[in-house]
Specification:
Two copies of one chain form a homodimer. With about 375 residues, chain A is α+β, with helices and mostly antiparallel strands. Chain A has 14 helices and 15 strands.
Chain lengths: ~375, ~375
């Protein structure tokens, strides 16, 4: 409906306030379209791209899943459509309330809130699905409508942000103010980056494990390597993936990803780089040029890391990843092959075998020389 | 060995620096004792309370599990003891290194670090067990030795802390500086509370769910109800339970706990209040006077909350809790009975059925009138 997707893809410096205006406009346009159809004595109708598996395609150019040309129609003329049609309009109305009143919510909250409006959802799966419909119709993600997940990751580094959330407008915080890191929630996700000094921050490092995030802060990785550190806490939540993309584009600095050396860690990196099939209807969530720094299967060999044998589940996962078009690149093929050959996995903490600071003093500088994957 | 336990139990205002001194002293005393025995031409030996189930007793007075009088002896004279004896001394040495060098670590890290010293642990379960032995011998918890878990919870409120970690000594942060909350990691756990104003903070509210923590911040619960908010992120990590106790004792303010209305939520509150059987060898981790504010089973009835049926697993859990001596109090018996009768559970988000702010405007003030459980 709104050509937001293309715009923000081409536009490297996006203002959060501008984005919020576009989110509200997209909701108004959806409502306006339905309203106009009613005034014109037409049965209100809208179309959106189909999210059926057959319509999820991998796009080699943007290196991510996108939706194809098939679309689905929801019309108030069709009795079978009236339920999802009404549910979508309620969801859009509730999203508009949240966004314009600056209140955040969770998927679970949306499900219960519907009951306050006597809107009928059989279960949360149904209301979750309608939120995804709204994402598909508007091309904005649910976080843009202030629907956030429970999971929180964290950030730390010498970068100053300026908040846009109510009560904090114009207030600033340097992200190195709290040496345990600060949470990436609605306020940080919608903060503007101000006072960025490339002499202080010229890269972003995303880390899977909390223990290592803390180690990096203690060992002053942010100063030694001029990095903003992000703790993904396992698979990075969408708000964190959105933030990584913004940091990459708005600060114009590379993003490095460090995960455990196993198929699951590899995939944490991949989802940051190429997004997920579940989010094929969305843009702005992935960082195509982010670099997976390790732990690679070849690192397990090269650094003689303590390791555990790959389990049957790990090997099954490798088979799946091998068939996944996101893994077509040379690095990924080589690492999948190496995992298969050595049949071993190693965690990030395995470097402690050489002392607690080895990973910071030796491994990290070697990996930060990578220019791409 | 060191009469730390009793001291800090009686002492409401404990200084973090003082505590760190005691931790190092306890390690020196352990080493000194072994050294003296060797100099005296004795086989070095030490004793610690047994952690076998038969020796874990519930103490009605302190309302927590403690260890009984049985003890185990580890002697270098006994060939079967040499392995765990040596492992304990290495663990103490490594803990001393971490603590005196202000480096933090994880249980996983300890396991891998041992390999740097050619210290043999079969697997992580063995090294974890030795860390627990060291806790038992010294009465200090592993967080006191800078061994932290991966999990992080968060804190927010108008309270200023002063850090004691390297690079941040003397630096201060007001905990309302970041409206998503700041992480509770090693730096916050060891920070001193300064500039506490009872007109600004006269209670602590611990919340299970992240969505509700964010809602509370947005709705200015910290100002309206003069509260410091803590997000436990499910079962509160030990560092967070230690922090809750410190806030309760050092600021002399009550702690309220809000969880989901199910057996698991009830137990999250209970572990904050009465600790866990696994930590029977430790003190300073529970807050006996903390108040479970809800969601109670009786709230599900009184507030006509949307609910889900209790599963077989939930009912099995209720049977376990009923036999648990920590649940002997009237409130707990009544709530277990009510869960059984109504056979329903409700999440914190269920209050959204009455609008997003109902929980803050109506439910919370009613519950904050509670003086005890």
């Amino acid at each position: 409906m709104v050509p937001q997707t293309k715009m923000s893809r081409n536009k490297s410096k996006s203002s959060i306030k501008e984005r919020k205006g576009k989110v509200l406009t997209s909701l108004e346009e959806l409502g306006g379209q339905v309203y106009k159809q009613i005034v014109d004595h037409e049965f209100p109708t809208f179309r959106m791209p189909s999210r059926s598996i057959a319509n999820i395609l991998y796009d080699d150019k943007t290196r991510q899943y996108i939706l194809g040309k098939r679309s689905v129609k929801r019309s108030a003329r069709n009795v079978a459509h009236i339920r999802p049609f009404t549910q979508l309009l309620w969801t859009a109305m509730f999203a508009d309330e949240l966004t314009s009143q600056n209140k955040t919510s969770t998927l679970r909250d949306v499900f219960y809130s519907a009951q306050a409006y006597e809107m009928d959802f059989r279960d949360q799966a149904e209301s979750d699905n309608l939120i995804t419909d709204l994402e598909t119709v508007t091309s904005f993600s649910r976080e843009d409508f202030n629907v956030y997940p429970e999971e929180r990751s964290a950030i730390f580094g010498d970068l100053t942000v300026e908040y846009t959330v109510p009560g904090y407008e114009g207030k600033r915080l340097n992200l190195s103010s709290h040496p345990d890191g600060v949470m990436i929630g609605p306020a940080l996700t919608t903060a503007e980056f101000v006072q960025h000094d490339k002499k202080k921050v010229d890269k972003i490092i995303a880390i899977e494990k909390g223990g290592l995030f803390t180690r990096f802060i203690e060992e002053r990785v942010h100063q030694k390597y001029r990095a903003v550190l992000i703790h993904t806490a396992g698979q990075a939540p969408r708000a964190t993936r959105f933030l990584l993309r913004r940091l990459n584009q708005e600060l114009d600095v590379p993003v490095y990803i460090f995960t455990d050396g196993d198929p699951w860690g590899m995939h944490i990196a991949m989802v940051i780089i190429s997004g997920s099939a579940n989010a094929a209807h969305l843009r702005d969530l992935n960082t195509p040029d982010a670099i997976w720094g390790g732990v690679w299967a070849t690192d397990i060999v090269d650094y003689k890391l303590p390791s555990d044998p790959l389990t049957d589940l790990d090997l099954k996962r490798l088979n799946e990843l091998e068939k996944d078009p996101r893994y077509a690149g040379d690095l990924w093929k080589r690492e999948i092959d190496t995992f298969r050959k050595v049949k071993k996995k190693s965690e990030q903490e395995a470097f402690s075998r050489y002392g607690l600071t080895y990973i910071v003093d030796k491994y990290l500088p070697a990996k930060l020389k990578l220019k791409s994957n």
